[in-house]
Every structure is written in C-alpha cells, then in structure tokens.
Design goal:
By secondary structure, this protein is an alpha/beta fold. The protein is built from 13 helices and 13 strands. It has two domains: 149 residues, Alpha-Beta Complex (Aspartate Aminotransferase, domain 1), CATH 3.90.1150; 240 residues, Aspartate Aminotransferase, domain 2 (3-Layer(aba) Sandwich).
Length: 418
C-alpha cells in the first residue's frame, strides 16, 4: 500500500489563467449559503437567475425539433441556424458572408477558445482591451501566446484611444480583440473609434475579432456599430449568440461569422473547422432556436427602454451611486453591467479583492473585483444590472454601510479566498 497519495499538478500553461467570476469568491458564497444565509449574487450576467425568460417562440422551436436533434450535426452547425446568421449579417449591411463562413458553437466561449487555438503559437501576441472579459486573456494564455492589454481608461469613458492601440502593434501581433458593447464597463464605442480600430487591423494585416454578444443591449440611444460593416481589408470574425439578448444562457448557442478579406485565410479557417470537428458538433437542439430568435420580434428593446425592466434597473444603479458618498460610475451605455469605482482616496490601502471578500462575509453580497477583468487598478468592482430595483436598493445600502464603517475604522488587512 502506498504511504502517501500521489500528487497531481495543474498544467503549467494554466499558470496565468484566471476566471474569478466563478472563482474563490463564488465558492465562498456557496459555503455561506450552505450555512443557511441568503447571498445576493451580482457576479454573473445570468438572466434566468433573476426571472428573465427565453422568448416562448424559441422554447417552442426547441421542443418541436427535438426529434430531429438526436444525431450529430455538421461540425459548423445546422444549415437553418447558419443561414439565419447570414441573413442577420445582411440586415446589418455586412457583405460577403455565406453559410460556409458561419460556425456554431456551445456558446461564444467555446468559439473564442477554438479561434485562438487555431491561430496562435507561443510567442505570438494578441491585443486585448483592459478591462476585458477575462476569457479572452485566459484563452490567449492557454495557447502559450501573450495577451497585450490596451487601456480603456475610466477618464475616457472606458473607450480606447486608437492612436495608443496602434503604437502597441508589433511584428508578433496576430489579432486585435474588440469587445463592444463592453463587458465589464458597459461602454459602447463611437463609430469613429470603431473605424479607427478597424484601420489598425487592416494596415497591419492582423485578424480582427469582435465580441458583439451584447449588440442589441444598449441604452439612451447609444448606437452599436458592427465592426464587420467597416472592415474590408483583413479577416474579421464577429461573435454573437443567444445567451444575453435572448436570455438563453443555458441553451449554449453562439456563433462566429467570418467576413472581410478572406483570400488568404483558408488555411486558418480550415484549422478552425478541424477543431470544430474534433468536438463533433455543438448542441443541436439549441441551434433550432436561432432562426426563430434572429427572425422574430426583438423583445430585448422593450426591456432596455427607459420604462423597461433593464432600463429601470440600470437607472436604480445610477441613482444609488449618485447618492453614495464613496462611489462613482461611468454611466453604462450597453451590456448588463456597471463597473463601479470606489473613491479610494478616502480609503488608504483600499484593495478590491479585500473589499469584495469583506462585502461577502459581512453583508452577504457577491460582486466581482475590478482587477479580475485584467484592469491595472484595484478600486473598481462589477455588478450586474439584472436584479430588480428593490434588490438593487438593498445591495447598495449594504455597500454603503460597509464603506461607512471603513471610513471610521480604516481598511482591514487583506482577506484572501482560498
């Protein structure tokens, strides 16, 4: 009999991979719940958890096509779903996309991993926004390549400076990632900025990867500009899906459509298809909802209107921050989040991780530290806009109570989740 258990280590290429949205804080929240406490969770943009429903027509499309969903589909996805994405691109003014240029995936997350794995070698670089949705940075690390973060500064409304991005391109740069509308900040980039970022990718002949999963979730008249409408001179991949706009996270359906200059991209796209083939196919039942979703009534607009549920909940967050002595917020113009700043000049030694853990332990509120999104500062946290207005009021009252205490007693020593 062995005297000690064998030790199994994690792969070294995961050393810099982080996803704290579901990390130690979330695990600690589960432990607190098991002790009998209610935790108000604002860490994940999961509409179903807050009572949002997938449109009924989409649910019916799944049920009515179950009989045709029992076998594998083509590795790129079922034709009706891919063709629906093609028609969607045409309605937006994007040219040159066919069903062969569309890949369906188990959510956008899988497609991010596949498209980067097919592209990158150790030593390559990818330009990624900071703050970013951390899967982008993690996926680059997994390949052995290096994420190079271009700043989207709070003082500029979290909108990047294209001139600064241009200066960060090197001979090792293989791709430029754009997340618009942005998670975690809610920024929606002006047309001129989007066009300037496209020109960078075209001038340096690098791939443009545009995460547009929140494309129809905008507020107060903000205009989302599809990157692919402006890109002709290089390969452009646009990511979309059913999770957010259509409140169908659990169905796990996303897509990437390829447009722009595809003349020299066939070897790369074949590699993406190879990886798609290795996982055989993506979830088939969910794909039957794509045509219904994209071709039907866009109920998201009723929710994002000022009088709609998301519009009201966003306003509740804005008003709560405005009342606070300690908080500031760049008004989110899109997506499902607020990226809140703590006035850390009032709190010497403030640390977002310590704050988030203290808030969880003492007030049973779960938020995500801003540094989790590869931001270089530690004075922000992200909340989702999905809870109802009453819950938002409770959350921000508890945050204010904690910060009031810290204002009197000082910031506690760092609390690290195991």
């Amino acid at each position: 009999m062995p005297t000690s258990a064998p030790r199994f280590k994690a792969a070294t290429h995961l050393a810099n991979v982080r996803y704290e949205i579901r990390g130690p804080l979330a695990r600690r929240a589960l432990e607190i719940e098991r002790q009998g406490h209610e935790v108000l969770k604002l860490n994940i943009g999961n509409p179903a958890a807050f009572g949002f429903r997938t449109p009924e027509t989409m649910r019916l499309a799944l049920v009515e096509n179950l009989a045709g969903s029992e076998g594998y589909a083509h590795q790129k996805g079922i034709f009706p779903a891919r063709e629906a994405v093609v028609m969607e691109t045409q309605s937006k003014g994007i040219k040159g996309v066919t069903a062969e240029d569309v890949f369906m995936g188990n959510g956008v997350s899988e497609l991010i991993l596949m498209t980067l794995e097919a592209m990158l070698e150790p030593g390559d670089e990818v330009l990624v926004p900071s703050p970013d949705y951390p899967l982008w940075t993690a996926a680059v690390h997994i390949t052995g390549a290096t994420p190079v973060h271009y700043p989207c500064r709070p003082e500029n409304g979290f909108v990047p400076d294209p001139d600064e991005v241009r200066r960060m391109v090197t001979p090792k740069t293989k791709a430029l990632v754009i997340i618009n509308p942005n998670n975690p900040t809610g920024a929606v980039y002006p047309r001129a900025v989007v066009e300037a970022l496209v020109r960078i990718a075209e001038d340096f002949k690098i791939v443009l990867l545009s995460d547009e999963i929140y494309d129809r979730i905008t507020y107060d008249g903000a205009e989302h500009v599809p990157v692919a409408t402006l890109c002709q001179g290089t390969l452009c991949g646009t990511f979309g899906g059913l999770s957010k706009v259509y409140r169908a996270c659990g169905i796990r359906v996303g897509w990437v459509s390829w447009s722009g200059n595809k003349d020299g991209a066939q070897e790369y796209l074949n590699a993406v298809e190879l990886l798609a083939s290795l996982r055989l196919c993506s979830n088939v039942p969910g794909q039957w909802a794509v045509q219904t979703a994209l071709g039907g009534v866009q109920s998201i607009y009723d929710l994002t209107a000022p009088t709609g549920r998301l519009g009201r909940q966003r306003r509740a967050v804005l008003e709560a921050v405005k009342r606070s002595r300690f908080l500031e917020l760049v008004e989110p113009k899109g997506a499902l989040y607020g990226f809140v700043r703590v006035k850390d000049d009032l709190f010497p030694g403030f640390d977002d991780q310590t704050f988030a853990m203290s808030l969880l332990e003492e007030k049973h509120v779960l938020v995500v530290p801003g540094s989790s999104f590869n931001a270089p500062y530690r004075n922000h946290f992200r909340v989702t806009l999905l809870p109802d207005e009453e819950t938002m009021g409770v959350v921000f009252a508890r945050i204010e109570e904690l910060l009031e205490k810290w204002a009197e007693t000082g910031v506690p020593a760092a609390k690290v989740a195991e």
